[in-house]
């Protein structure tokens, strides 16, 4: 979409009933061969979910465009008003790559790699959160609903409340919320909690994440808490902040429809053909991130090959590792390590014309992803820690044939819903190997039964249900702080 399509949109004085704020806008600027540029929708269920709730509701989405420097003018895309927020090149380094991805991300994912603390990064994080809050305050209609997303914007709820006490503020955490023992390492632990407590309602992927947040408020701020709620302020300014699990999902209908198209079905067969029609096609699809357990997965496959429990020819492991955060050192190191391991495995076990590990450091379109899901006999989702993991939900949804098998780490949010997956602790390499073998060798009936149960669960809890539930919980009256009326529900 281009900015000129905003011509018939409300002018700059228009205020919106629903204001969504996320670090990124749901679009990327793409350049055509002739040098002209346009905006393209980023893939992902969040955009679809927001589209369905925003289109009927006079909504605006506030976020960074993905490029350094001045923000483009606000514009429309698929009926959603998009309002870019500017980030300088240094703010991208300090607020985004630094504080968000090299301080918070490791702390919130069990410190799988060490977190780095820099006061200059924190200053940028505060500044950018304040900038987002100012735009939110400017664009929100009286009494509007404000929905802020994720760990990059934890201070914005309190800043918005200061500027606009009339609006209702929700925040959703896409990643885990860490146990207080890890969270307490953050030099800025108190202002972060105070920032979040500006919200009326906080949504998390799992009940354990909501509980971790509430416990941190009790331990680090000394606030009165009970299950799923924190009391802030005193006297007339006393209010309840509610915290509950609202697990995110995917756009089930559109992915299942895509997987049923003849083109995608044919492409799935073509993928298998081009790999030499292996007996077993294993698949991994992840952003190249140390939280995803790609190294553990490769180690398990390597050992299975060495032990002869998997054989080449006969087995192919396709690992799509989408490029991610390549300017953060821990991600560069991980990439080097993974590529070295893939080379070693292929060096030892491949033969001319048949690699064992097909490693693809690339991004693919939705149709290609659906075809890969349909082609795979076993999907390996083995994160060491993951808020939800949408790939697991996408895989089962794409299996419109009830085929395939899902190996799923117990450290994902998805495991709390997909209980008939082949569960694994990815740190236990021997256990992971046994689970992979079981997923390959169980009878067709057993695998289909497991797959059907997971497909039903995801179909009954799609992304629209998620967005609807979040907004319902946000809209609910908190009730008096003495707890005589209950706040939001907490589910696992
Ligand atoms: C965070 C949390 C939580 C990946 N490669 C391609 C591609 N993808 C898509 C997948 C999936 C999405 O990206 C990745 O989502 P995940 O949930 O697996 O992981 P994160 O990016 O870490 O997301 C996570 C999520 O937020 C939502 O709350 O589940 O726990 O970490 O949709 O399909 N899509 C396309 N081409 C690719 O190459 N089209």
UniProtKB/TrEMBL annotation:
Signal peptide segment: none
Gene3D superfamilies reported in the protein's UniProt record: Glycogen Phosphorylase B
Pfam family, one: Glyco_transf_20
Protein name listed in UniProt: Trehalose-6-phosphate synthase
Family: Belongs to the glycosyltransferase 20 family.
Origin superkingdom: Bacteria
